[in-house]
């Protein structure tokens, strides 16, 4: 009886517990059914989320164009790879649709992508062990090309799939890289997962990121457990708004020419740095700009120099700064070009360090101030500042020319330099560009006053912004004057002075003279400050050589600044050699391309002729045809048929240009007197192995004239600068450069005598 009583009590307790649990669970179910929530989470919303797939739709980033609509940067498709691991995905399929063998998959992917097989396998194995439905591969599986995608698909690897994503592409490679900059993919973790976008990092890509970026859209739909759309997917689409297009003032053809010339000089002279700016001095439009070292924005992983040096790296400009000293003297009314002074050295008083002209203080005797400008006399510049303009008034002109403020160019990271102007010696040196620092773009803006009747123009690189959908212009740049430091009369007189520097026999700018256009400009040869202490580095190569020029001088259409730091020069070469190669080629060709009429320097101006088709023609008929056009071709060999020419058919050339016709039985021509460039064109026609000795024009050749030659033969040739023979006796009568060297040792006197 006692046991029955205990059992009944326990049964009652269990019954009460069971009833209580039942009531709690039933109540909970009733509450959930009534409210539709669990722990504050709506079951309807949760179910909707589970069966709804949402994806971001990337807006297409706006294109960057040159001024003529040539594409400089655009989005092109790339692919993100992922793997499906769930076996259930292959149900009802005769072939596996998921990754069935991680080792085999990793091996094939590693072979195609040239990646580490173990890393790919580890990614797959870890995802399988954690029961993931699918997995991505990180950077290994991102930004794949169409070719890589096709190879993977053709290999038949099961379970590997792709999503399309944009990739920023720069079709011209190392082209205006510091202006265009680059954009790269960025990842951002959000509530919906990791979002991917392309964001500008440097240059225009960064500055105009808001304009180029656009607004991303999205798409959502109902799905099954395999992420497939339902028959009634309840799809919601929010279309993306593509970014707008940015048109630059850069001209793709001129920029390409400049880049090619810079690369050639960079390879030949191995300088520390090079800079070049081509500007329309009437409007301020930057037509081309380049710097070395540069980089390819398609692979910016090993960039030597992030700075856009023409606007971001101030340096002591040297004698190009004398432009503004003479302009200040003219504007003040204290300049008479016929007045004379004693060149060589100048010392206002014993407490001020002596100023010396660039030929070791030897000078040129008593010369006029006009001649002082042509010869780039440091003494003339210092005397003008100290005795005529006045140091305080000169400083006001420097401010009026904008040397203590940014130009306002629409590029990032502009610097302003610093005018060192406290002590008398600093003031005197500033007159010829030593001690104080400025940027090339500051000099370009200041010099634009000479072209625009005394008014400076603000440089700019963004021409317009265009709606990528409608094609309508949203914003358009206009030329902007930013001050008038000099009068129209002073500007005209400065143009005349600049022209004498290049075209007068005593001018330092003789190497920059062109055949078709009158050039004006100013040379500069600035010393390099010693990084290990005070003073300056010595030696011929330790300078920044520069030239600021414009053409044609009656109405300048182009203004160009080029500089080169510490080039490896031959003993017979001056610093103007690499600069003149860039300046002359880019200005002459650009003015012709812009259809600027050549100056009528000669009444019998020679006209260009169209080169005919000569390949496969008989040698005799091709020669006769060319001679009828006034062209005297050089026949290479004794064959009966022309197999190649150094001029393309349809190309316009001057009759005086060297035309080579290669026959089917080539022999070695006499290349004495040819330039290095002409020899290299000839060598390219036969793929000859060449070796150059010296600089200038050919004086001897390793292959005898008339000897049969064939592809791959070795050709050595010696060159000599025609001016080198007279350089020892001509002193500075035919200077090519002007050095602002005041602290050069006697050991370097011979080297600098030619500067």
Structure notes:
- The structure is a single chain.
- The protein is about 30% helix and about 20% strand.
- The protein is an alpha+beta fold.
- The strands form ten sheets. Strands 4, 5, 6, 7, 12, 19 and 20 form a seven-stranded mixed sheet that branches. Strands 14-13-23-22-21 form a five-stranded antiparallel sheet, with helices on both faces. It has a three-stranded antiparallel sheet with strand order 3-10-11.
- α11 packs across α17 and α13 (about 380-390) packs across α15 (about 425-430).
- The chain has four domains: about 1-50; about 55-250, Penicillin-binding protein 2a (Domain 2) (Alpha-Beta Complex); about 255-295 and about 305-595, Beta-lactamase; about 610-725, 2-Layer Sandwich (Trypsin Inhibitor V, Chain A).
- The N and C termini lie far apart (about 130 Å).
- The chain is extended, with a radius of gyration of 36 Å.
- The relative contact order is 0.08.
């Amino acid at each position: 009886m006692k046991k029955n009583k205990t059992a009944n009590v326990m049964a009652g307790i269990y019954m009460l517990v069971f009833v209580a649990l039942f009531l709690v669970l039933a109540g909970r179910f009733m509450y959930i059914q009534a409210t539709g929530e669990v722990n504050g989470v709506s079951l309807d919303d949760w179910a909707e989320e589970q069966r709804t797939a949402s994806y971001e739709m990337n807006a297409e980033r706006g294109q960057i164009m040159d001024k003529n609509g040539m594409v400089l940067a655009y989005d092109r498709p790339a692919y993100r790879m992922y793997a499906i691991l769930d076996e259930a995905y292959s149900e009802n399929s005769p072939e596996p649709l998921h990754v069935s063998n991680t080792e085999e998959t990793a091996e094939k992917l590693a072979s195609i992508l040239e990646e580490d097989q173990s890393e790919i396998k580890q990614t797959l194995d870890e995802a399988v062990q954690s029961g993931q439905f699918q997995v991505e591969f990180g950077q290994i599986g991102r930004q794949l090309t169409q070719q890589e995608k096709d190879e993977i698909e053709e290999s038949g690897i099961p379970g590997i799939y792709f999503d399309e994503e944009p990739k920023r592409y720069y079709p011209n490679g190392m082209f205006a890289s510091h202006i265009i900059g680059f954009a790269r993919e960025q990842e951002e973790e959000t509530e919906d997962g990791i979002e991917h976008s392309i964001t500008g990092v440097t240059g225009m890509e960064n500055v105009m990121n808001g304009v180029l970026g656009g607004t991303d859209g999205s798409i959502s739909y109902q799905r099954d457990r395999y992420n497939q759309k339902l028959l009634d997917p309840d799809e919601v689409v929010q279309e993306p708004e593509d970014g707008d297009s940015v048109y630059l003032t850069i001209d793709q053809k001129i920029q390409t020419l400049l880049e090619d010339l810079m690369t050639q000089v960079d390879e030949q002279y191995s300088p520390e740095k090079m800079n070049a700016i081509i500007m329309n001095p009437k409007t301020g439009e930057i037509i081309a700009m380049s710097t070395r070292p540069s980089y390819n924005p398609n692979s910016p992983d090993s960039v030597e120099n992030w700075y856009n040096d023409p606007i971001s790296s101030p340096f002591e400009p040297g004698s190009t700064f004398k432009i503004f000293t003479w302009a200040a003297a003219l504007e003040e009314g204290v300049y008479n070009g016929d007045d004379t002074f004693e060149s060589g050295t100048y010392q206002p008083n014993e407490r001020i360090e002596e100023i010396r002209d660039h030929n070791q203080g030897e000078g040129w005797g008593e010369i006029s101030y006009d001649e002082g400008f042509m010869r780039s006399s440091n003494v003339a510049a210092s005397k003008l500042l100290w005795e005529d303009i006045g140091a305080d008034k000169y400083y006001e002109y420097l401010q009026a020319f904008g040397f203590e403020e940014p130009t306002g160019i629409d590029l990032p990271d502009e610097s302003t330099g610093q005018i060192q102007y406290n002590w008398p010696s600093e003031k005197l040196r500033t007159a010829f560009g030593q001690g104080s620092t400025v940027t090339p773009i500051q000099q370009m803006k200041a010099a634009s006053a000479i072209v625009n009747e005394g008014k400076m123009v603000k440089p700019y690189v963004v021409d317009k912004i265009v709606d990528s959908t409608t094609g309508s212009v949203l914003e358009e740049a206009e030329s902007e004057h930013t001050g008038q430091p000099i009068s129209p009369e002073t500007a005209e007189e400065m143009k005349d002075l600049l022209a004498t520097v290049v075209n007068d026999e005593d001018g330092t700018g003789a190497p920059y003279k062109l055949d078709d256009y009158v050039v004006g400009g100013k040379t500069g040869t600035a010393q390099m400050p010693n990084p290990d202490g005070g003073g300056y580095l010595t030696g011929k190569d330790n300078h920044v050589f520069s030239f600021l020029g414009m053409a044609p001088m009656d109405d300048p259409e182009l203004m160009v600044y080029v500089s080169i730091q510490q080039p490896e020069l031959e003993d017979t070469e001056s610093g103007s050699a690499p600069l003149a190669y860039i300046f002359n080629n880019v200005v002459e060709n650009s003015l012709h391309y812009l259809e600027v009429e050549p100056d009528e320097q000669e009444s019998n101006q020679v006209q260009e002729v169209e080169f005919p088709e000569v390949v496969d023609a008989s040698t005799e008929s091709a020669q006769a045809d060319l001679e009828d056009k006034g062209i005297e071709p050089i026949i290479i060999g004794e064959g009966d048929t022309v197999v190649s020419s150094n001029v393309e058919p349809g190309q316009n050339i001057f009759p005086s240009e060297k035309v080579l016709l290669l026959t089917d039985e080539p022999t070695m021509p006499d290349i004495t007197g040819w330039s290095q460039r002409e020899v290299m064109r000839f060598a390219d026609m036969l793929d000859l192995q060449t070796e150059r000795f010296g600089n200038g024009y050919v004086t001897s050749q390793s292959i005898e004239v008339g000897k049969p030659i064939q592809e791959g033969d070795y050709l050595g040739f010696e060159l000599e600068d025609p001016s080198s023979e007279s350089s020892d006796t001509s002193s500075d009568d035919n200077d090519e450069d002007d050095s602002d060297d005041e602290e050069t040792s006697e050991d370097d006197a011979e080297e600098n005598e030619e500067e």
